Each structure stands twice: as structure tokens, then as C-alpha cells.
Amino acid sequence: MKPQTLYEKLWTSHLVRQQDDGTALIYIDRHLVHEVTSPQAFEGLKLAGRKPWRVSSIVATADHNTPTDHWEQGIQDPVSRTQVETLDANIRESGALAYFPFKDLRQGIVHVIGPENGATLPGMTVVCGDSHTSTHGALGCLAHGIGTSEVEHVLATQCLLQKKSRTMLIRVDGDLPAGVTAKDIVLAIIGKIGTAGGTGYALEFGGSAIRALSMEGRMTVCNMAIEAGARAGMVAVDETTIEYLRGKPFAPTGEAWDMAVSYWRTLHSDEGAEFDKVVELDASQIEPQVTWGTSPEMVTTINGRVPDPATISDPIKREGLERALKYMGLAPNTPITEIPVDQVFIGSCTNSRIEDLREAAKVAKGRSKANSVKRVLVVPGSGLVKRQAEEEGLHEIFIAAGFEWREPGCSMCLAMNADRLEAGEHCASTSNRNFEGRQGAGGRTHLVSPAMAAAAAVTGHFTDVRKLV
Amino acid sequence: MKAFTVLEGLAAPLDRANVDTDAIIPKQFLKSIKRSGFGPNLFDEWRYLDQGEPGQDCAARPRNPDFVLNKSRYQGAQILLTRDNFGCGSSREHAPWALEDFGIRCLIGPSFADIFFNNCFKNGVLPIVLPAEQVDELFRQCEAEEGYRLRVDLQAQKVIRPDGVEIGFEVDAFRKECLLNGWDDIGLTLLHADEIRAFEAKRRAEHPYYFS
Ligand code: SF4
User: Which of A222, A232, A445, B148 is least buried, going by the fewest C-beta atoms within 10 A?
Assistant: First the structure.
């Protein structure tokens, strides 16, 4: 048989039918649901008199709109509350494999709770009305973000209409230098291929540097596949994947586990499989990354400078750059280390897992927030992450450093709740998008790793974390 | 879904690359549990000078006179000319809902982000990809000529400029059928319910651990 890529294996094993023009019906194993993109889908289903096809595929939680402090007061914003209550009612009516509502111990960001509960497994197709669903591809599954009409389509039919993507292998070989993390890898990839570089492709991340990453790190990389324009990113299954899943609440046990594992071990691209495109990076050359603009591709290293539009000949690119610098309030050629930071956000589905918090705590330990920094938010990705961090005493390190230790949720990643930037503020953020207004109208986001965010918090400006550890 | 056959309409040029869905419809408006009513908040942060919040009377808000869709010559535009990677970022379908509610039925640009592109077709909005030089020419003509109207014929797969030049475009056959007829694709998929059931039974037998 012709050698196959991981993507081809996952695609073929879920293909229900294919039309002549290539449009295919793909069977969906896991459907993750949150409050923002599902109400209209449930409503549409009801209006059409349809029922969900297989409710045991559904895992739901409330994360985008929920507050991260004063949980005893409930959700103060009435509009957000209605949305969360609508999800409660919809799940109560339809049923689900699992629902982690607001305040539940296992509540959290949808892309954190799926893997940590073993609700997303290798070999599955996973969808969610959220573009960062690509995160789950770290487990060797095919995970797509979808729109609300597609949420309704999956609810009603258990299938997604899709065309096969082209395949791209992003091979990162070599040893990652100390102080450089998965976040720096993925920002470096986006810097190299651009935010539209992956459009139309399913990305597979491979190479020795990816294999050396923990599952948390792989999730960080796959999370930002969408920032490179790709709907799906994935990593082959190996022992790290299998060990991560062992004993997780929804992972199979006993004989079923053995059966699953022997299948999962086949979930990698075969020797000699052909990709439509291959991109290579040398991990040993990657340095801590910081974005300076309003798109994730506007990125450089901690030792870099803000670029100068005068050096760009393409008029559309130059104008885009000028607009970004104006929005960010930055002069051309400013060294990155001279950009002061007003707020710091450590959280989001990119970097709110236990390992991320450990990395940040390592830097924060024995130091304190710089006086010029107004606020440092540490928002764990889920209730389970929070509990684990507290067992390890990480919260005490953060609190001693003057950071705020919050309840889990999306928080200032998209600022739908009360956590947000004021206009003009610069934020060192471990999230995934630095678009205009993303963290609050007029807010200025710089994407960095958790260690780099903590380094900015304790020094008041961007600082090479390698000098602190 | 509204069918899309032939559209003859005013075009407006949005001359920015990487327009993301946060810019198309900012997150504070995503708290709505409805599908409609997003038009007044389309491009909210660019269109208005104050801060947009849900429930405001948008007619009374101060407008940004420099934003292209606020210019009198582009009032009533149904076709938006766009630049590279339009619709990147969040998967929110509120973005095409807002465009459609505002009155935009067709987008023409050199490239669109994947999920956004897909979401448009589900909502009766036709995104057309043309080579960058063709798009550049449309931008030039549209900015030069007040009242610049294009004719978009989906059946014939053509954009027809006022000077009579016809530009062919590609569209996926299945999506074209659905748009031309205003079909709901859930209904179409359910015609294959037996096949889905058979597939599911087979998968359950081979991989029972995905079904518990
Ligand atoms: S943490 Fe941010 S990116 Fe992730 S799901 Fe929440 S809002 Fe989306």
C-alpha cells in the first residue's frame, strides 16, 4: 500500500461518502460545545423539528463569558448570564456525555478540558464552534474549528461536509535552547510561513524538537495552527501521547485500552509518505519570540527591533505595517526590550496548562511584579489545572509576587468578561491573537510564552527570560 | 438560506489586508443568542468613534467619517472588495451574519480565511476569489468612479464590470448548487441518513472505545 500521511489516515477512516466534486461527509466522533457559538445552532435544530443525532458525542462547558473572580456572586453581566443559562437549558434538554457548567470543578476552557479528561482521543474527529479546536490535534486526532451552521449540521447529522485539505509537514529538528518553549516554536513558524501560509492545508508538526515536547507543549503548537491559516494541526501518536492519556476519566480502560492503544500506535505518517509541502525549522536557532504588531506574523525575537516601514517596497505591506505601528503606538526601530508593559496575562487555551503555570512560576519565584505594571492576571485553564497548581504551591508563588490568582476561563484572551485592557495599554500575553481590540478596545497585545510573560511582569518591560533563570 | 443567483449592486473597497473576524464583529456583540441584528455593529470599532456596547441605539452614535462604509458614495453597497486573508481569526459565524444583515451579499478578494469562507456559503453570502491583479483593478476602478456597480452572475460564474469586461471565477459545484437554490445542507445530508447509520455501526464495532 502507498505510504499515507497521518491526515490521510484520519480522513479515510471517517469518510462516510464522497460526491463527484470531492465534497465529502466526514463522521464526527467528538463534539465540543460552549456557550457563545451554540445557542443559534440549538435554536435552528429546534425550529426545524430535528433532534441531536448522538448526544453521547457531546462534551460541553461554559468558558468564554464566565467571570474569573467573585464566583460567589454568579455572573453579573445579564447578557453573558443569559448565554450561559441558554447553554445550561440546551444541554439539560438534549443530554451530553459530559457537561462542566460554570463553577463545576472540571469547568474550564473547552480546549483544556477535552484532553485533560480524555474526552478527546487519538484517531477521533473532533469539532467545536471555535477556531482553536486545532489544539486537540496534538493527540493525533483530526480536529477542526467550525461555524455555528456547522455546529447545527453536526448536531443534526453527526457529520461535517468537508473537502480534503492539502498536507503540509512542518519539521522542527534539533534541541530547543534552555528558556525557549513550544510557544516560541509556533510563533517562529508563523513568522516564517505567515498567517495565511497554512490556508487550505492540514498541518502536521514533526521532527525531533516536536517529539521532545510534552503533550502540553504540543497542544500549544497545534493551538496556533489556525493563526497560520490552517484549520487543523496535528502531531503523530507516540509514547508521550499514550502515557498522557493513561487513567484519564474518559479514556478507555482494561481490554478496551489495549485495543485502543494498538490502533493508536498506527497513527503517524508512514515512512515515505508524501506531503504537498514541507517546511523546515532548526530548533536550536529559535529564540524567545515577541509580537510587535496586530497580526501573529508580526513577530520578532527578544533581541530584535520593531521594523521600519520605510524599508518595505510593497505598498500594501507598508501601509499595513504603518497602520499596525500606529495602533501599537510604537516607533520604527524600537528595541523590543524597551517596550514597557502595563498588564500581563498568563492564561488562554494556548498557555494555561499546568506546565505553563510551572514555567511562569519558575520566573516569578522570589521576585515581584514591577511597580510600573498595573496588573498581572494568572488564569488557569480549568478547575483541575487550578487544583493541581494549588497542590504544588504555585499560587503562593504568584500571590507573593503580586500577581492575581483567578478562577478558570478564557478571561482576557478575548475580554468578553470583565478582564480587559484599557485603551493604549501594552500587555504581555500568553494568548494567541494580537488583533486590534482583541483584549479590549484600543488594547495593545504582545504574544509571548508564559516564561517571557512572567519575565515582563517582574521587570516592567520585555526581557530575555534566559537572563533570569 | 436566501438564494443567490444574480446580484447587481454597488461596490465598496475595504483596502486592508488580514481583516479579522474580531474587526468584522467585535466580541461584545457575540453575547447575543440570536442570528440576526448584527448589521448595525458590523466593523463597529472602525465605523463609530465611541465604544460599542450591545443594546445601544447605533443611529445616535458618532460615526467615523473616514471609514469607507460611512462615505455617502458607498451607502447601500452590496459588494465588498477585500484584500488578502479577509476573515481570519475566530470562527464566529456572527461575521457573515453581520455582513449579510448590513446588506453585503458578495465579497471579492484575492484570498479568504478558511472557516470564514465556509461560513459565508452557509448564509447566502458569496465570497469570490480572483487573482490579485484583477482585484487591484477593481479597487482602482471602484475608487475612481462614483456609483461603481458590478454584476455578479453565479450561474455563469462571472463578475461583469461596468466597462463590460467579464471576469470568470471558480466556485465549488456543490456550494454553487446550494447557493443558487437556497438549500439547507442539513436537509441534503439527511437524505443519506442510512449511509451515516451504517458507517456509525461499523465504526462502533471496530472502535467501541470512541462510543462510551
Ligand atoms: S482561551 Fe481564547 S482562544 Fe481559547 S477558546 Fe477561549 S477565547 Fe478562544
Answer: B148
Q: Pick A147's closest partner by Cβ from B33, B118, B184.
A: B118
Query: A30-33 and A404-405 as β-strands: parallel, antiparallel, unpaired?
Result: unpaired
Residues in chain B: 212
Largest CA distance in chain B: 64
| Residues at CB less than 6 angstroms from ligand 1 | A 63-64, 109, 111, 130, 132, 348-349, 410, 413-414, 431-432
Residue nearest to atom 1 of ligand 1 (CA): A348
Q: What pLDDT score does A92 carry?
A: 95
With a cut of 90, say whether residue B122 has pLDDT above it.
yes
Q: Which residues pair with B126 in a beta bridge?
A: B106
Cα–Cα distance, A368 to A211 (Å, whole number):
35
- A86 contacts: CB under 8 Å, gap ≥ 6: A35, A39, A42, B33
Q: What is the ipTM of this complex?
A: 0.94
Q: For A252, left (φ over 0), alpha (ψ -120 to 50), or beta?
A: beta
pLDDT digits (tens, 9 = 90+) for A125-142: 999 999 999 999 999 999
Of A83, A130, A441, the CB nearest to B31: A83
Distance CA A424, CA A208 (A): 41
Return d(Cα A359, Cα A343) in angstroms, integer.
18
Strand partners, B9: B150
Q: Does B113 touch chain A (CB under 8 A)?
A: yes
* Burial of residue A167, with CB atoms counted within 10 A of its CB: 0-12 exposed, 13-18 middle, 19 or more buried: buried
Exposed / middle / buried, residue A138 (Cβ in 10 Å: 0-12, 13-18, 19+)? buried
- Decide if B33 touches A, using CB distance below 8 A: yes
Query: What would the pLDDT profile of A7-36 be if each residue is shown by its tens digit?
Result: 999 999 999 999 988 999 999 999 999 999
If phi over 0 gives left and psi between -120 and 50 gives alpha, with beta otherwise, what is residue B18? left
Residues 6+ apart with CB under 8 A from A192: A279, A281
Number of cross-chain residue pairs from A and B with Cβ atoms under 8 Å apart: 181
Q: Which of B145, B179, B180, B177 is nearest to B162 (CA)?
A: B145
∠ Cα A160 B94 B119 (to 5°)? 35
The C-alpha cell that represents A193 in the structure block: 510561513
Percent with pLDDT over 90 in chain A = 94
What are the residue ranges of helices labelled H in A313-460?
A: 315-328, 354-364, 383-391, 394-400, 450-459
Reported as a pLDDT band with limits 50, 70 and 90, residue B2 is confident
- Residues in chain A, pLDDT under 70: none
pLDDT of residue B149: 98
Yes or no: say if A144 and A160 are a contact pair by the CB < 8 Å rule: yes
Yes or no: say if A163 and B172 are a contact pair by the CB < 8 Å rule. Answer: yes
Helix (H, G, I), strand (E, B) or coil at A62: coil
Give, for ligand 1, the residue of A107, A132, A219 to mutate: max count of ligand atoms closer than 8 Å to Cβ. A132
Q: Where are the alpha helices (DSSP H) in A253-346?
A: 254-264, 315-328
pLDDT for A181 equals 98
In A135-243 the beta strands, taken as DSSP E runs, fall at 142-145, 159-162, 166-173, 201-206, 232-234
* Nearest Cα residue to B45 out of A355, A327, A54: A327
